[in-house]
Amino acid sequence: MKNKSMNDYPYKFQYAEDNVYGHVVNLLGQFEFPQQGVHLDIGCGWGAISDELIGDHKLHYIGIDADQDAVNHLHSEGKEAYCYQLSSYTANLEFIEKILNGRAVSSISIIDTFEHVLYIEDLLQTVSTLSKKHHAPVVISVPNFAHDDVVFKLLCHKFDETNTGLLDETHINIFTEEKLVNICKKHGMHQINKKDVILERSDQHFPKELLTLAETSSLRQLLLNLRGNMKSDGKVNQLVRMFIASHPSQAPVKQQDRPFLSIVTRTVGDRPEELKEVLLCLTGQECTDFEVLVVGHNLTVENQLLVESIINANPEWIRSKIRLIRVNGGNRSTPLNFGFENARGQYITILDDDDIVFSNWVEEFKNLAKDNYGKILKSVSVRQEYEPTTTTFSKKSSRAVSGFLRDYPAEFDFITMLHHNQCPGLCLAFPRSIYHDFGLRFDETINTIEDWDFIVRSAFICGVASSHAVTNIYRWWLKGTSSQSLHNNQEWEDNYRYVQNKFNSQYLIMPPGNAKRIASLVGMLSERQNLNSGLSMPLDDQLIQKREIAHLILVSNSWNLTKPLRLVKHLFGKKTCVPEVFSAAESELDEFISNAQNSKSWKLTRVFRSN
What we know:
By secondary structure, this protein is α/β, with parallel strands linked by helices. The radius of gyration is 32 Å and the shape is elongated. Strands 9, 10, 11, 12, 13, 14, 15, 16 and 17 form a 9-stranded mixed beta sheet that branches. Strands 1, 2, 3, 4, 5, 6, 7 and 8 form an 8-stranded mixed beta sheet that branches. β1 (38-42), α2 and β2 form a beta-alpha-beta unit. 39% of the residues lie in helices and 18% in strands.
């Protein structure tokens, strides 16, 4: 640390109710300490909290600091204080036990000291030993390196050290909430309370012209939007946490120890046969790098026993992968949030208790992740209509009443997804970070379309990697209980408007390729408006219709499925001419539509196109 005279000593701060010292005293004030119990203030500085602890809480104050000027100041006020440079665990403990001289410690504080200490592990071990021995709570304060101002400036390669504050030039350690809590857990210090110091604008809120700090800039608003859902401490200037010592915690789970996929299965226990089929499908997976979280929602005792018996009827290897989690209250979103919160996998997917997956379901996700790790992974669902039925083996079974319906496109369409959902949850796998780091949650204020809302908000952050492989069947119930039957049309419409307004209120990150599509759609809309207004334009309704037909061909399942055939043709010098749909001449459109609809491949793939 730099040598400074008493007059320019930068750490001589005053006590105030709303600063770090007031917050430390507030946390300590929640305990009834024995009178004249010792409060140990390690790294005490000029003893800003000493008067409050001596006067209001009747504690005997002992300060320890490496700065002799600060210690002398406390001596001049008649307070007990010692000059000591923190070092090894053994030396620290020996020194503190010597000055205590048998006195019991009621509480400990370490205010804005960790960031200056070279032997931080030794200090934590020392404090943990004292806390455990004396059953004394410990309050620790550190500057928060993850404040929005610091993070947003780092994005612009700016790291401005100052005499004091978040980026004090004397700091040798930096802390975020996660680092502080984890390093304390490692030494048996467990957080029991907190009272952080919040500052919207820290001492690092400069220069004002920086776009990431300029309040109304779109860039800043986008960044704030992204951090807004996180377990964010972006407005926290100083972390002020209270700990108590016990046994050390296990280290956080490392990525390599996580299964690839966590499968969240909601059930209320009223579809036993379908749940059996779900678990049977998982038993037949080609890739078994997964775990299953069966989330029982509002289970009666009878249904809980039924679900447990279904799980226990499976082979041991799959049984060991299944966890049953009971959740009471809330709506359809609640079990999803519980499932995602408890998921250990690198990716998380939704497989409800009435859907069917093929043997390649997990394998396809894992293959996609090899080159697209961090994106949402998407395969293809087919829809199949079902009805409840009874059999000689079960009173609650089901039967298919249609073939496979290719209602859902192979590629994820960002623009169309803003209008309506094209993706059943089971065709998607979400990176765990979107939930556990970015803090996105299923909206528990709505009873329908909660999956669409979550998918779209996630997709514009993660991006989506799509596979054309069909991996699952989405059951569509024509009769019996389903989300369609449980909620009336008005509720669906209200939820739809609510979600649309949510999308509209946020900044969206659009992936490459969509700007041109938006421009084309706007152009087509303008053409229609001009026609409706009676203006003389070279386009007419027939041309607009041809543009729409050509567009539908290009986004159809048939076009996607026959891509390999077009590649083969190209190798033999027969190139397929694809016009720019929304700017092509009418003759180009006619030729393209005719060639496509009269081709053998188009006719052969008719069964895969939606009606």
